[in-house]
Design goal:
The radius of gyration is 16 Å and the shape is elongated. Helix 1 packs antiparallel against helix 2. By secondary structure, the chain is an all-alpha fold. It starts with 11 loop residues before the first helix and ends in a 28-residue tail after the last helix. It has a domain of 56 residues. It has two helices and no strands.
């Protein structure tokens, strides 16, 4: 899924974060719908599709820019180093 961007100068980091946020919203929204309509097969299929897209986007983001959330277990607290995902930093182009 290619997301439109109102500012073409956005960095790939910002675009990937925006995609991850979009997929996360879609997963959560579909999950809420399934709470009300648990037998809806189309909604369940959509949930599974968006969940896979969310996981792929998260893995890609984390492989390039570091953890997006605190790990469930950690040997160090390095995930707090560097800018937070919502802080804008410009990539070297």
């Amino acid at each position: 899924m290619m997301l439109s961007n109102r500012n073409n100068s956005s960095t790939s980091k910002e675009k990937l974060l925006r995609a991850l946020q979009t997929y996360s919203f879609m997963v959560y929204d579909t999950l809420l719908y399934l709470d009300a309509y648990p037998d809806n097969k189309e909604a369940l299929n959509n949930y599974n599709k968006y969940k896979k897209l969310e996981m792929r986007a998260k893995m890609e983001y984390e492989s390039k820019y570091g953890p997006i959330t605190a790990p469930s277990e950690a040997n160090s607290w390095q995930w707090t180093e560097g800018p937070w995902p919502w802080q804008v930093d410009k990539e070297v182009r």
